[in-house]
Amino acid sequence: MPWYGILLLIIASLLLLFLALSFGLAFYFAHLLTHPHFYDRDFCRKTDIDKGLIPEEVLSWKKENCPVTMEDGYVLHGDFYPGSKDRLLIFAHGYTWTREGSLKYARLFHRLGYSLYLYDERGHGDNVRTKVTLGYRESKDLHEVVRFFRKRLGEKAVIGLHGESMGGATVLLEMEHAEDDLSFVIADSPFASMRELMHYQIHLYHVPGYVADLSNLILKVNDRFSYRDVEPKESLKKSTVPLLLIQGDHDTFIPPGQTKELYEARKEKTTLKYFKGADHTQSYLSDPEGYEETETEFLRSIHLLGKEE
To answer: Which helix (H) or strand (E) holds 28?
Structure first.
C-alpha cells in the first residue's frame, strides 16, 4: 500500500475514534441526566432535620395522603396539608430529591393558613422509577396537578406554585398555561435554558461544548424531547402571573446569571432576590428569616399574605 493510502487509513481511523468517543460521551451525559441517582424520602427528611430546617412541629402537621393520577396512568404521590379552603400552594422539589425537601419552604405558608400540596415529581420519591426530563414531562404533570386542585377547590381559589432547582424550572414552564389562572409563582434556583445549563455542566467536566449538542440529539431520538422543549425563559414571557425569583449569588450548579436572564426576559410583575454567599438551593439555609421576609413582602405586594394581610 502506498504511503498516502496508509495516511488516509490512519486519518479515517482517528476520525472514527473521535466520533465514537464524542458520541460515547454524549450518550453518557444524556443517560446521566435522565437516569440520576435518586434519594429516598427518609434520607431527604433526615438531611433537613439535621440542618435544623425542619423542627418537630412540622412533622406533626395534619396531612392527608393525596395521590394524583396523570392522563397516561402514571401516579404522583403526595401529601395534602389542609388549611384555607380557597388558598393553596403547590410545591415542586429539586432534581433527585423528594417532597420532604419542600417542608422547610412550607413553614411560612402553613403559618399563613394556606393549604399545601407537596408531591414527588415523576420518577422520584414514592413514585415508580422512570426517566427524568428536567422539566419537560414534569411540567406537564404539574399542569395536571393544578387542574386536579382547580376542580377540587373551585375556579375562585388562589393557587400558587413554589419550585426549587428543577422544580423551579418546572413551575416556570407551567406559567404558560393561562387557563390555570395561577395567582403567583416562586422559583428558587431555576435555570433559564436547558441548552445553556447543559453546556455549562458539561464544561465543568472539561468536555467540549459540542458534546452537549450531541446529547441533545440523543435525547431527541431516545426520549422524544430536546433542549428547545425546556426553555423556562420563553414560558414566563407568555404569562402575567406575579413571579418571585430567588437564587444564591454563589450558585455553583446553575450560574446566577441565568436567574438574571429570567428577570430580564420579563421584568413586569417580577421580583428578583439574590442571597449573598449562598450556593445552589442554599438561600433558605443561609438566611431563613431573610428568605421568609422576602416571600412575605412579595405576598403583601400582591395582596395574598393570608392571615397576616
So the answer is: helix 3-34
Q: Strand 75-76 vs strand 87-92: parallel, antiparallel, or unpaired?
A: unpaired
Q: What angle do CA 103, 237, 271 make, to 5 degrees?
A: 50
Residue type, 211: V
Domain extent for 25: 1-34+195-224
Backbone angles phi, psi at 201, to 5 degrees: -65, -40
pTM higher than the cut 0.85: yes
Same domain, 141 and 84: yes
Cell 435525547: give the residue. 219
The C-alpha cell at 233 is 425563559
Asked if 266 and 238 touch (Cβ cutoff 8 Å), the reply is: no
b (16+ CB within 10 A) / e for 120-146: bbbbbbbbeeebbbbbbbbbbbbbebb
Last residue of a domain, one of 207, 224, 241: 224
What pLDDT was estimated at residue 213? 95
Around 32, how many Cα atoms within 13 Å sit in the side-chain half-sphere? 12
Same domain, 208 and 239: no
Tell me how long the chain is: 309
169 and 273 part of one domain: yes
* DSSP symbol at 249: T
Residue type, 224: R
Task: Fill in the amino acid letter for 286.
Answer: S
Condensed to tens digits (0 to 9), the pLDDT of residues 219-253 reads: 999 999 999 999 999 999 999 999 999 999 999 99
Q: What pLDDT digit, counting tens, does each position of 67-108 carry?
A: 999 999 999 999 999 999 999 999 999 999 999 999 999 999
Do 76 and 60 lie in a common domain?
yes
H helical segments located in 191-302? 194-204, 210-223, 232-236, 256-265, 283-286, 288-301
Would you say 280 and 253 are in contact if contact means Cβ atoms under 8 Å apart? yes
In the chain, the number of structural domains is 2
Do 290 and 151 share a structural domain?
A: yes
